[in-house]
């Protein structure tokens, strides 16, 4: 069995937990005392489930596998205890590795010093020195093996990353328009909004198409990780036959979405990029892209979900008065989308207030370093 931790963006833990439960993963109950429960979800898994987590999960950032946990209050103790961990199951000592350390309320608080002792311990275990490099999250090729160490109240938890490049890198989005959403955040917004894949989905501010593409992948049951490499593929334990069997199973479960997915943007360049991204994701056939202003939207008769992140004036500069844009959005939704569910990602409740719609549910998040809120509500019936 593997003890795993699905790292997720703070604010998304409950959504990731829900996603994992719906896929049948054995997630642990959130522990209010555990500092680890913030920022992710713990679960136990077989090797196949570890692969499935990377293959299927849409909302986490990466999946860590825990090697061990022990108390350590001094460097010598840290090194000798860490040297006993089962590194051989995970690491190749001749490949570079990166060690990421966080220290919280512990006697060992110097993260570089801790990283040095952990590198020493790995070298002791393999009886050869290891080369330690930086881990660049923006890279997705030739990444080093990543070891994650967390010291909290003198308790040291050591994990190895099984994902490699961040999980939002689904290998489809080469082209981005202005201020794109991360793929895993887009998927999380769709789940938070409660979108049912049997109902229509519209994004009238689609930019590079992330929300619509994630929706099409969900509705088409397309596994987000099927076309990419993962760090576990370099582990000595890697079972390529098992992985291939899981990928084949995932491919066999794909289906044509039941309801329309509509994406539009007033920027012709964005629509081109979005279409190219959808092609690469294998989802182009499932999305109707239209080059138009949101005011020209033509929603399907059956009410569905409208999920979007309109410009909000921090990452996207607009000469338009954003207050008017939100007021107009409110008018258009009230006139054209009665009874639709609406989810709007924005950094300003003041702007969203101009829609004059009610948003009884909100979710606080960070998008591109900016605190934002996902506002969820329903357009009233006439
Ligand atoms: C924050 S971006 C959306 C990013 C998108 N979610 C993604 O992942 O790439 C906002 C988008 O709204 C579009 N937009 C701005 N005003 C618009 C309008 N009046 N009608 C339609 N689209 C508009 C912009 O062209 C831009 O692509």
Brief summary:
The protein has helices at residues 13-22, 47-56, 75-83, 111-126, 183-192, 210-219, 240-252, 268-281, 322-336, 349-353, and strands spanning 2-7, 26-27, 40-45, 62-71, 97-104, 145-152, 155-161, 201-203, 261-265, 287-291, 305-308, 341-346, 361-367, 370-378. The chain is α/β, with parallel strands linked by helices and 382 residues long. Bound molecules: S-adenosylmethionine.
Largest sheet descriptor: 7 strands, mixed
The dominant shape is: elongated
The CATH class label of the largest domain is Alpha Beta
Portion of residues within helices: 25-40%
Q: What is the radius of gyration? A: 23 Å
Strand portion, in percent?
A: 15-25%
| Helix vs. strand class | alpha/beta
Could you please describe the fold and organization of this structure?
This protein has helices spanning 13-22, 47-56, 75-83, 111-126, 183-192, 210-219, 240-252, 268-281, 322-336, 349-353; strands at 2-7, 26-27, 40-45, 62-71, 97-104, 145-152, 155-161, 201-203, 261-265, 287-291, 305-308, 341-346, 361-367, 370-378. The strands form two sheets. The chain has a seven-stranded mixed sheet. A seven-stranded mixed sheet has the order 10-9-8-11-12-14-13. The model has no long low-confidence stretch (mean pLDDT 93). The protein is elongated, with a radius of gyration of 23 Å. The chain has two domains: 2-161, VC0802-like, CATH 3.30.2130.30; 183-220 and 255-378, Rossmann fold (3-Layer(aba) Sandwich). It has ten helices and 14 strands. By secondary structure, the protein is of the alpha/beta class. S-adenosylmethionine is lined by residues 177-181, 204-208, 210-211, 265-267, 270, 293-294, 309-311, 316.
């Amino acid at each position: 069995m593997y003890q795993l931790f699905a790292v997720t963006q703070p604010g998304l833990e409950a959504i990731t937990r829900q996603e994992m439960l719906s896929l049948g993963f054995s997630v642990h109950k959130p522990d209010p005392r555990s500092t680890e429960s913030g920022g992710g979800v713990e679960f136990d898994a077989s090797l196949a489930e570890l692969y499935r987590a990377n293959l299927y999960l849409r909302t986490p950032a990466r999946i860590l596998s825990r090697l061990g946990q022990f108390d350590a209050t001094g460097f010598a103790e840290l090194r000798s205890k860490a040297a006993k961990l089962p590194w051989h199951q995970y690491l190749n000592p001749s490949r570079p590795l990166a060690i990421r350390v966080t220290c919280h309320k512990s006697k060992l608080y110097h993260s570089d010093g801790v990283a040095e002792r952990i590198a020493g311990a790995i070298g002791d275990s393999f009886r050869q020195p290891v080369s330690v490099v930086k881990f660049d999250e923006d890279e997705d090729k030739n990444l080093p093996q990543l070891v994650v160490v967390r010291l909290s109240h003198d308790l040291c938890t050591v994990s190895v990353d099984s994902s490699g490049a961040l999980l939002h890198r689904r290998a489809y989005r080469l082209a981005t328009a202005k201020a794109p959403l991360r793929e895993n955040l887009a998927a999380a917004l769709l789940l938070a909004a409660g979108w049912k894949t049997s109902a229509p989905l519209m994004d009238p501010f689609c930019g590079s198409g992330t929300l619509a593409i994630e929706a099409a992948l969900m509705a088409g049951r397309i596994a987000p990780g099927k076309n990419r490499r993962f760090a576990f593929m370099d582990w000595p334990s890697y079972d390529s036959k098992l992985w291939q069997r899981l990928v084949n199973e995932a491919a066999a479960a794909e289906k044509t979405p039941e309801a329309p997915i509509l994406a539009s943007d007033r920027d012709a360049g964005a629509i081109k990029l979005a279409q190219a991204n959808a092609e690469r994701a294998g989802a182009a056939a499932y999305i109707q892209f239209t080059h138009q202003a949101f005011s020209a939207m033509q929603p399907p008769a059956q009410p569905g979900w409208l999920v979007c992140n309109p410009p909000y004036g921090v990452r996207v500069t607009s000469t338009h008065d954003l207050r008017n844009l939100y007021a107009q959005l409110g008018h258009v939704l009230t006139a054209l989308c009665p009874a639709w569910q609406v989810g709007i990602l924005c950094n300003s409740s003041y702007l969203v207030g101009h829609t004059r719609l009610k948003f009884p549910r909100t979710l606080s998040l960070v998008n591109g370093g900016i605190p934002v809120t996902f506002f969820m509500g329903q357009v009233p019936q006439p």
